[in-house]
Design a protein that fits this description.
Blueprint: H1 2-11, E1 17-20, H2 23-33, E2 36-39, H3 45-59, E3 64-67, H4 82-106, E4 111-116, H5 129-149, E5 154-159, H6 176-183, H7 194-205, E6 215-216, H8 230-241
Parallel strand pairs: 1-2, 3-4, 4-5, 5-6
Helix pairs in contact: 1-7, 3-4, 4-5
Protein name: Oxidoreductase
Keywords: Oxidoreductase
Pfam families: adh_short_C2 (PF13561)
Length: 242
């Protein structure tokens, strides 16, 4: 999702710094879009500080910052361990919180902060509580940033996709019946794409966007309905195996 957004922004003329833990992939992407890359683990505040410094050193300013990290843990509530919670919180709450802190220090008196959230921060999905809770929590932090930093001309918003075909969900997309079980809950009749998210991010980043502190539900109307329950998913997978 982050890679698609980087390519989309570059096509519009943005100078893009891509960051993450896989330095080889980052360098290849940066070369492709005529941008720059910086190795960064979002759970490491020193890395985050270095990322912002590298961006300012390379481009002279920081206008837009997007966090697209996620850890797709699916685990029953009572089986979720302290280790699971610690890692999930580091990746999806503490890390993003500190990322936004560093970004705000480096951003001039205008700009756009964008958090990639999830429809499940609003509607339910079984066995997903740690993921959902941390996404919902950082969405509220986004609202706090919007409230406190609007006077500096800085906007902060979230984007909430539904089920999207990404490396994190690639295994699920190998079962067409599984995808169909979800698809029928989308009023617009299809599963979302990473391109949908990139287009939304581009608008949120633009000067034409008069919006802040909002959660943009880019999920084809999924939140008007629901995700399938776990028992429905298990019944589907069981019938597919026989």
């Amino acid at each position: 999702m982050g890679q698609v957004m980087a390519r989309r922004f570059a096509r519009e003329g943005a100078k893009v710094m891509v960051a993450g833990r896989n330095k080889d992939n980052l360098r290849n992407l940066a070369d492709e879009i005529d941008g720059s890359s910086c190795g960064c683990d979002i759970t490491n505040q020193a890395d985050l500080r270095a990322l912002v410094a590298a961006t300012l050193d390379r481009f002279g300013k920081l206008d837009v910052a997007i966090n697209a990290t996620g850890y797709g843990l699916l685990k029953p509530f009572l089986e979720t361990t302290r280790a699971d919670l610690d890692y999930m919180t580091a990746v999806q709450f503490t890390g993003p919180f500190q990322f936004f802190q560093e970004v705000l220090k480096g951003m001039a008196d205008s700009g756009s902060i964008i958090q990639i959230s999830s429809a499940t921060a609003t509607i339910m999905l079984d066995n997903h509580a740690a993921y959902m809770g941390t996404k919902a929590g950082i969405d509220h932090v986004i609202r706090c940033i919007a409230n406190e930093y609007g006077e500096r001309g800085i906007r902060a918003n979230s984007i909430s996709p539904g089920l999207t075909d990404t490396p994190m969900t690639s295994e699920a997309f190998q079962t067409p019946a599984f995808v169909e079980l979800f698809r029928k809950e989308y009023p617009l009749g299809r599963i979302g794409t990473v391109e949908d998210v990139a287009e939304a991010a581009l608008w949120l980043a633009s000067d034409a966007c008069f919006m802040t502190g909002q959660n943009l539900q880019v999920n084809g109307g999924l939140t008007l309905r629901r995700n399938p329950r776990q028992k429905e998913i298990e019944a589907l997978l069981s019938s597919s195996a026989t």
